[in-house]
Amino acid sequence: SVTQGMVISPPDLVTHATLNALTTIPTPYPRIVTVTSTGLTKQSHEELPLAMRAMYGYLLRSPHADKQGVEMVLARVTGETVDPSMAPPEGILPAGWEVEPGFPGAGVLHDSVVIIRPAFLTDGPCLSETKGPLVVRTRTEADLPVKKAYTISRQDVAYFIAERVL
Q1: Closest Cα partner for 63 from 96, 35, 32?
Q2: Whole-prediction pTM value?
Q3: Which of 165 and 18 is assigned the larger pLDDT?
Q4: What is the DSSP letter of 157?
Q5: Are 90 and 9 in contact (CB under 8 A)?
Q6: Which of 2, 13, 16, 34 is nearest to 109 (CA)?
């Protein structure tokens, strides 16, 4: 949309899918890996270069709102606290989502969830296969971007998940 950037329909697609998966997941709980995005919190957004802040704030507003919903849901089941600036806008999370039948209780999945927050995704080649796994730089604290690592190929993210996470 010219006025709203990229708009996904429905606006809560990933959040809703995550809620459905969590309410039907078998026990014992398997490892859950999800891909959201960097720049979702106010602090991480401010650390991006100016051009990326503009793009994330305009073009990716709708997809990021959905990712914020996913992060809120996963924070609940892992028992983590959520940065208030990461709360999704109205309409992303349905009323009463925390008490849906089958939804895991707060903190139940504290060791089962891995959230990958990649930088801007590209269609480039997988550099990890040719240059080694150190090509993918990681940060484990908060949602802060890795300095001077503002893009990553989708193939590198997949490689990282398959080789390092799983």
Answers
A1: 35
A2: 0.84
A3: 18
A4: H
A5: no
A6: 34
Q: Could you identify the residue written with the tokens 């949602």? A: 143
Residue with tokens 């606290």: 81
Please report where in the chains the tokens 């997988």 appear, as a residue.
126
Long-range contacts of 106-110 (CB under 8 A, 24+ apart): 106/76, 106/77, 106/79, 107/77, 107/78, 107/79, 108/29, 108/77, 108/79, 109/29, 109/32, 109/74, 109/77, 109/78, 110/78, 110/79
Q: What are phi and psi of 54, to 5 degrees?
A: -65, -45
Distance CA 150, CA 119 (A): 5
Q: Is 113 helix (H, G, I), strand (E, B) or coil?
A: strand
Distance CA 80, CA 111 (A): 11
Q: What is the pLDDT of residues 43-54, one digit of tens each?
A: 777 878 888 888
Distance of CA 60 to the CA centre of its chain: 13
